[in-house]
Design brief:
Blueprint lengths: L13 H20 L6 E2 H7 L4 H13 L3 E5 L8 E5 L1 H14 L17 H4 L15
Antiparallel strand pairs: 1-3, 2-3
Helix pairs in contact: 1-3, 1-4
């Protein structure tokens, strides 16, 4: 349930706000990128975010007010359950944060070399075996 109350009756620090912004943006970006959901509700997010519902709701509403998220309600006749989706600004910021957080894990090999080939950790351009005929561009 959305709330504008501060989590657990305490003043969140700037570090808390930065942490939750990163976490929420990255989870929503990942869920969208994997085709799991374009918008997520509290139950969806709590699977990936280890905190109480009040804290997560506080930051969801804060990020909605900042224009990073858009709140939607289910229209299926059930009690209104808010779902949150990235806005265009939120998607841009989430993409940058996701790329920064997982930069070292995103260099993938091209699948033609052994697991110990340098291209597995430095990228396909580093592969000495296929300098001129790599299938990727």
């Amino acid at each position: 349930m959305p709330t504008d109350k501060q989590p657990a009756g305490r003043q969140p620090s700037a570090l808390d706000a930065l942490f939750w912004r990163d976490e929420i943006l990255q989870v929503l970006f990942w869920m969208q990128g994997e085709g799991l959901a374009d918008a997520a509700g509290m139950a969806d997010l709590r699977v990936f975010l280890t905190s109480d519902a009040e804290t997560i709701a506080f930051y969801l509403e804060k990020m909605t007010a900042e224009g990073l998220l858009a709140r939607h309600s289910s229209g299926d006749g059930a009690p209104a359950v808010p779902r949150y989706a990235l806005t265009e600004a939120g998607r841009r910021e989430a993409g940058h944060r996701f790329a920064d957080a997982f930069e070292g894990m995103q260099m993938q090999g091209h699948g033609e070399c052994s697991p110990d080939c340098i291209c597995q950790w430095e990228g396909p351009a580093a592969c000495p075996a296929h300098q001129h005929d790599h299938p990727h561009g």
